[in-house]
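Figure 2 data, in text form.
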Amino acid sequence: MNASFVCVRRRHTLLGIFLVAACTSVASDASTGTMLTTMTWGPCAPELVDPHWSAVLGERLECGIMPAWLDADAPERGALTVGLVRFKAGETSQRQGSIFFNFGGPGGNPLDFMPSIAYLWSTRSANHPLDGDKRRLADRYDLVAVIPRGLRGGTRFACHVAESQDGHDPTVDLADWNWVGYVRESRAYATGCAVDPLFAHVGTLQHVRDMEQARIALHEPVLNFLGFSYGTWVGAFYSASYPAHAGRIVLDSAMNYAGSFEDQVAEEPYERQALFAQTALRPALAKPTVYGLGTDAGTVLERMRNMPHRAREAWPSLIDTPEDLVAALTMADWVREDGESTGERLIARMKGYRFSKDPVVDGQIHDAARAFAPLIERGRINDPETAALVDLSVYHAVACGDTPWLKSAKALRNMANEIGDRYPASHGVPVTLGLTCLHWPSPPRWRPSLTALAEAPPMLMVQAEFDPATPTSGAMRAFNASPNAYMVLAHGMTGHGLFGTSATPCIERAVGRFLLEGELPSQRMSGCNFVPSPPTRHVRDTGELTDEQSVRDELQHRLRKM
């Protein structure tokens, strides 16, 4: 086949004319290996963005596509379509450039996050002491996201087998015959991913190259960036790959990008257990008359280990508060009494039940119990909400394909046993992911050395002290490996995805000032105490189309899933 006319034709979610334009743009320059920096923009189709958001945000919200080589080092292999989403600057006369976003995952789609960010930033009052910079950013900058390869909005990638493990947790299912099944299904899943033609071309390296292509196409001299969670990995990767083109880079809730994906997940059980002890176990034991769990930590942990099978799969790793803990332990006792139980049965049983003598605490425990009850029928790993936000095929393609996975099946079995015994508030995702990546049939991709960050402008990192997804210990390793980085820590905060989700002054001001004016904190390491957001904030009239509090709460909830 003539490389000049190669185009990978797969499922697309934009108009066919866009795809034709993308393929035509590639064809004219394939012989030289140079990708034309063309983009096509238009209204976001309903299958990309909820029409409600299109109505609220109007013509400023656009979706687009651009062509990109499957492999920039071998253009003869053909091209694919990369999606984009943009919220244009509100004040054209004051426009200063673009801010690029990555909302995490890997496998998170900017189409699910950008409308919320656009709404919350563009409806701020410019006079608000903490939020005014967000309004000014939305007025002066286009908010842009390159959709990572394989996700809706561009050429899709899919692993061609059913998801393995069926939602079961290998740290709970410890029998030998179960383990054999986990290994077999993980190998089959990894092999099924390799069937897709995009298999070798969905990773951070390719995404960062797509971002650089988009920067050039948009005629931006530098790439300004705000990344959450895995987006911090992307931001550091970009800065190290293109230090001369890096602009103001903000890394919010940082992964340990100085290590590997295997390093990141290996730390999770210990960090998760420590966070559980800090935010749920110790506060509950400090008030035995309120929570009714006594004062002995060992007794409570043993109750967790002895939860009925499905209860232990579903609830412990989600316990963040004393109220969560009481709800989970009480309902676990009910499940044991019933033999088998359903979410409906648990909700019926809690009606009229008094969890605590304190009426406020009792109400909070009821809220936690109602949230936990439906999970008894599906377990935590098979959470449909997470599956709707994170494309698991892309997640595995990046996590397994970017960096080496060195643990053997025997080492992963030992990890499963250790988590089950020592870290009952954790979960088996490090094991199931490790098994899949162990069998991943491709070598790790190229990564830039972090020493190149010394040639890039300073980056700003912001972190919650008690981050449940990307612990501070890992973020500090990344910080220490980044010569020009500044860190702002929200003391006492339990959260993931900070900017815009609280009223913590050092976080909101530092990020806003840095993105807007390039101002950095006076010290390389600084922080302040966490301040929660007030229930309401002043917004300009938007015709009451969207409730601001609900949008902020939902965004915060979604970011935590990343």
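Caption note: Strands lie at 40-42, 61-69, 79-87, 97-102, 141-146, 223-228, 246-252, 459-466, 485-494, 525-529.
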